[in-house]
Amino acid sequence: ECESAFNSNITAFALKAKVIYPINQKFRPLADGSSNPSLHENLKQAILPNQPVEASPSSSLGSLSQAEKEDCSSSSSIHSTTSYDRFLSRTFVRANSFPEALICESVDLDLCIYNLHLKDLLHLDKALRREKHMMFIQILKMCLLDLLPKKKSDDELYQRILSKQENDLEELEKGLQVKLSNTEMLGAGDSEYITLADVEKKEREYAEQLIDNMEAFWKQMENIQHFLMDQFKCSSSKARQLMMTLTERMIAAEGLLRDSQDLQALDTLERTMCRAHMAKMIESLKLQIQEETKCRLAALSHGLELLTIEGKLSGRQKEELLTQQHKAFWGEAERFSRDFAQRGKGLVKASMARQAEEMAKLTLAQEEEERSFLAEAQLTMAPGEFLQAFHGVLERQRLTQSSLEEEEDVRTTEAMAVLCQELYRSTMEIFQKFVDLLFLETLPGVTGLSRAECEYLRQEVQENAARQLGQSDRFRKQQWELFQDLLEQDKQVWMEEHTLSSVLQMHLQDDHEGIVHQVLGRLGGLSEESTWCILQGHDLLLRSALRRLALRGSAITTLTHMRLSGKKSLLQELREQHALEQGSSQCLDEHQWQLLRALEARVVEEASRLEEEGQQIRLQLQQQLLAEAQEVGRLLQQHTEQAIGQALLGHARNAATKSRAKDRDDFQRTLTEAAVESVYVTSTGVDRLVQAYYQQIRKVMEDHEERRLQHLETLQGERMENYKLRTKQGPGEPSSGTPVA
């Protein structure tokens, strides 16, 4: 708000048009689009090219002081309450692979790499879900073989059961992929760019869709028992036994999947750190040409300034020569960037085609490996050994695919580095031609100096440029060390978040298990088998839910880093500037020392604010994770309640069946006693029985006649009362209040 309209317009134009500031630009525009002190300094120096110019590594404490005067709102605006809203709406390149990210603008690199990390987590979830479905089918196959030992594996009934489950899983996965694809297109009006707000919204919808898919799989698994009993007339005891075995083995499979997910999530993190390292290397190579240009132009400016002081060159001549050199040098630097982007796109396209071809071959080979393993191992291994071996095959396949992608990333990065070096060498040759043309042809004609004097001046200029380039190299090494420190800090934060996620899952597991045990303890009356089935089923669903929440927690951590990337870039540039000031000169006056101390205080302040705001963002995003954990807990509670209800219903039916069986036994015993007594029938006994029988019949008939007479008298009385009422009311008045009909 305190910026002048002129400076704001220039800064906005520079950020949009990607203008390369030709003189003394120490830092690129900040990642969050906020103002940079170097922009104001570069603007002032670029207006008058005849002013003495210094190279990039020279001290910029003056620029810091000037920035504090002219851009007094820089600090406060960055830390305003709306800064994150502004950052959430910022667009960055939608890179679908790491090679594509390598040719992005440097300000988009961090977000692109984090976005790729989210894609890797989604890909890992898909691979583990595929393994889970495959293990489910194989476990069901083994359970059916145990349940139907007399049936052959190619029996029609056997195949119908497996085909039904396989088709249901296939339809379930197809439906999920359609939903995920639709969500992926979110915010893709311009398919090349995406905002961080769109990324967070997509991740929330992904989480909801994956939870729905997980619940659908639970329902499919729970319906197997009813399916066997209804469609294939399997006895309830056999179907229940199959479900117990299926649940127990799926719990073991979930344990394998969880261990694999933890390891591969850490591998994905290492891969992301390596990608950040390689991307920084390519960025450094691309920026090297700008440092070379600035240092050479600074040396040229200094040499021409000496000629002007000696009176051999007028101010106008110097200004014209410097303008020509600026235009020529920065034109070549711009051509370097343009050629790198164009040829880099070709390298990316070739890399993607090569990777797609190799991945297709690998997929066919792995499918054949799976079929071969299933044909050989299932009939010869115990169930536990089979699951472990099958999981090992699938995990090895995933690692092979990941290694293939990593190798392609490294190969493409090396190709990009070679391209940078090639373009750098050709550009340096052109720069040398510019210098030779200036000193060996242009200056002798303008100044009247001899060729030997111009050659001596050219050597001095080149030596000056070499000294400045040496300072630039030392500063670049300091930048690299600071970047390495930043990577280590980020990795430490990732590991802390992973540990906190593990603690949260342990808490949720203990909480849910404790509730189920308390409920079952209060109910009582259930058999040990029913209680064990309920606990096993709950354990399976809980393991699956916690594994899903663990992967969602990794995504939440990634989104946290994406939100903080602008702040971290600002702090990193301040640290780089502080390192530059410390190494620029060994002797500083009082004013420079004060400015250096102010810069150090600014670094400490920004680090403190980054830590504070990082905690706020983590808390805000963790609320989403906790809300999703509550939703998963609600679904888990519903399924467990249903299982307990079915167990209680079965218990009641068994109790009723036993009661009816007891009554039936008492009746049979009475009949048996009567039959035994009937063997000893006498004439007196028969007369007594007949007389008693007739007495009972006579009594029943008398009672019946008496009830019949009473009923007739009642009906006759009601008819008389109704007749009297109608007579009193008259023929045209309806009877109100009495139910005549």
Automatic annotation (TrEMBL):
It comes from the Eukaryota. Residues 52-80, 722-741 are annotated as: Disordered. It is found in: Cell membrane; Cell projection, Cilium membrane; Cytoplasm, Cytoskeleton, Cilium basal body. GO terms for biological process: smoothened signaling pathway. InterPro entries: Limbin/EVC. One of its GO terms (cellular component) is plasma membrane protein complex. It is a single-pass membrane protein. Its main location: membrane. Keywords: Cell membrane, Cell projection, Cytoplasm, Cytoskeleton, Membrane, Transmembrane, Transmembrane helix. Residues 56-65 have a biased composition (Low complexity). This is Ellis-van Creveld syndrome protein. It comes from Neovison vison (American mink). The lineage of its organism: Eukaryota, Metazoa, Chordata, Craniata, Vertebrata.
